[in-house]
Amino acid sequence: MRFLKKPASVKGTLLALLLPAGIGLMGVAWLVHGLLLDRMSREFVESRLKDEVAFLEHQIRDANGEVDTLQTGDYFQDVFHHAFAIHTPEQTIISPDTWEPLLTPLIENEEDGTVRVEDAETTDTPLDILAYRKSFQVGETPIVVIVSEDLGALKRSQAALHAWTAVVSVLLIMLLVAVLWFGITMSMRPVVTLKAALKRLQDGEISRINVQSPEEFHPLVLQLNQLLDSLDQRLERSRDALANLSHSVKTPIAAVRQILEDDTRPLDTNLRRQMVERLSDIDRQLEAEMRRSRFAGPQIGKSAYPIKQARDLLWMLGRLYPEKSFELSSSLPEDSRWPIEEHDLNEVLGNLLDNAGKWSSRCVELSVEQGSGFKRIVVADDGPGVNHKDLASLGQRGLRLDEQTPGHGLGLAIVRDIVTRYEGKISFSTKSCSGLRVFIEFSK
Amino acid sequence: MRLLLVEDDRLLAEGLVRQLGKAGFSVDTTPSAREAVVLGEQEDYRAVVLDLGLPDGNGLDVLRKWRTNHVSCPVLILTARGDWQDKVNGLKAGADDYLAKPFQTEELIARLNALVRRSEGRVHAQVKAGRFELDENRQSLKMDDGVEHTLTGTEFRLLRCLMSRPGHVFSKEQLMEQLYNLNDSPSENVIEAYIRRLRKLVGSETISTRRGQGYIFNAIP
């Protein structure tokens, strides 16, 4: 089986499996055919010999034991094509004469029934014969009748028949190969069309694969098209982002450059402040667009370790805010995986924890849980919280609730974007004494 | 206060030297990673500002070299990449704080002062028990095979308490006092949950339960 382990091609594997199996089966059928043919012909010859003996007996009884009156000579041989011997106490008739050395021992044998003589040590006689001996009495005369047939001739014709069967078998095998080849080629045709479609896709002749594919290939084609969709979306998004970015970045650059190139204009405090503002704008835009374009969204084959990542982030924030405590509450095992791209999950956890760290007075708690059909992240801090009327607008683009402590602004907007992309839910709640609680649930 | 500034952008470095000088630091500056390694090991700086993208090497490698050679002055890393994983990696390599470019000089100076203050107050101590070493500065647990595990605040406090006296039975009430200032209404379940988590890290045979009495840290060599 080892040579089947790594199939080079489906076609090759199918042929390698089906062809030997077909040939083997055909061979077995041929052998069985030979055995059956042998047995059948022997039974047939035996019954015929019996019939002939019965016929001879009948003739002899009709002639009242007068063997001489029987039409002998070549008559029986002509009728039956067999050799025979009739023995009475007076005389013995053996026809043809050449069989005499073979049949004489049988007459003397005094044993009725079928006898097979092989490798007889006589000349001019067949080597292998089948004979039927019967003794009976007509009146007072005991008579022995033997009819025999040359099995060699029979075997020769049998062998010829068997050889013909072999020829037919070989022809059938060739037909089988042709049918197999045809069948495999037919059933592999969708793959070939798919291959052609992919080639055309690569060459840009078509934009989506639209092939009449058999049921087994539907998921494949669907996945491929989804992959293409997501590629298109990504390209479109990054183009949009770049267009937005260049629009909002080039203008301030032009303004700053214009001021710097004009060496007659003195750089007073007001002008400096304005230039710094322009540069800050550029930085903000860049940062926002870059972070937005960096996250991946749901992807096949990507997963994250929520507990490991949460631990690292909590530890890092604990080092950055040594006077605050960052705690993890989770019953998940250390190596559990979530189907979220690693960087995306880091961005969600990092932004939420960073915000909470900035606003909390002493303690931030992250809870990561997982149940049947949901995955939940809750980040709670003990800071001042957010006004109830502002809760709904948290994380909306462009909104910044507080200018002093940078936070609850861009970070939450990114979190909201990512959660939406993963078809999750995000909600905020606040209590008078417990600060802000961010609640995220992914259903997948 | 002597400060080392490792930054390859000359314009930025010059500006920072001026501003940091005004803030009371005497600044040495170098644009190369190779020189930074040597300077950090030879001179006695109170703080280091380290840019990660250097022309002749990665700032993180410089930092790792310093830390393996026991250069323990606080390091603030400057990075243009705002990736969370980068920040985690920076701190894991031994940095004490990070600042994303572009930054305001006031913020850099405030952070540096905070770092210096923190470093003066810190106790350079490692708690060792059995196969484990608890790093108080880095709030992390080092195994004898060199693997470092990061700990949250409560996990660290609890483990430090247990490891401070191996073989001693700590009752739940005693341990709760360690966490009391963190959770306003702690229940005994909290302790059990933290012990469970710590056992996942150090192995269940290391922290054993004495029924009705409390928990023991076993210093198994």
UniProtKB/TrEMBL annotation, chain A:
Keywords: ATP-binding, Coiled coil, Kinase, Membrane, Nucleotide-binding, Phosphoprotein, Transferase, Transmembrane, Transmembrane helix, Two-component regulatory system. One of its GO terms (molecular function) is phosphorelay sensor kinase activity. InterPro entries: HAMP_dom, HATPase_C_sf, HATPase_dom, His_kinase_dom, HisK_dim/P_sf, PhoQ/CarS-like_HATPase, Sig_transdc_His_kin-like_C, TCS_sensor_his_kinase. The keyword Cytoplasm does not apply. Its main location: membrane. Residues 185-236 form the HAMP domain. The keyword Kinase applies. It catalyses: ATP + protein L-histidine = ADP + protein N-phospho-L-histidine. It is found in: Membrane. Residues 221-248 form a coiled coil. One of its GO terms (cellular component) is plasma membrane. It holds the Pfam family HATPase_c. Residues 244-444 form the Histidine kinase domain. Its EC number is 2.7.13.3. It is an enzyme of class 2 (transferase). The chain crosses the membrane at residues 161-184. PANTHER family: SENSOR HISTIDINE KINASE TRCS, SENSOR HISTIDINE KINASE YKOH. This is histidine kinase. It comes from Marinobacter adhaerens.
From TrEMBL, chain B:
GO terms for cellular component: cytosol; protein-DNA complex. The keyword Cytoplasm does not apply. Keywords: DNA-binding, Phosphoprotein, Transcription, Transcription regulation, Two-component regulatory system. Residues 124-219 form the OmpR/PhoB-type domain. One of its GO terms (biological process) is regulation of DNA-templated transcription. Residues 124-219 bind DNA. GO terms for molecular function: phosphorelay response regulator activity; transcription cis-regulatory region binding. It holds the Pfam family Response_reg. The keyword Phosphoprotein applies. SMART domains: REC, Trans_reg_C. It comes from the Bacteria. Residues 2-116 form the Response regulatory domain. InterPro entries: CheY-like_superfamily, OmpR/PhoB-type_DNA-bd, Sig_transdc_resp-reg_C-effctor, Sig_transdc_resp-reg_receiver, WalR-like, WH-like_DNA-bd_sf. The modification 4-aspartylphosphate is found at residue 51. This is DNA-binding response regulator.
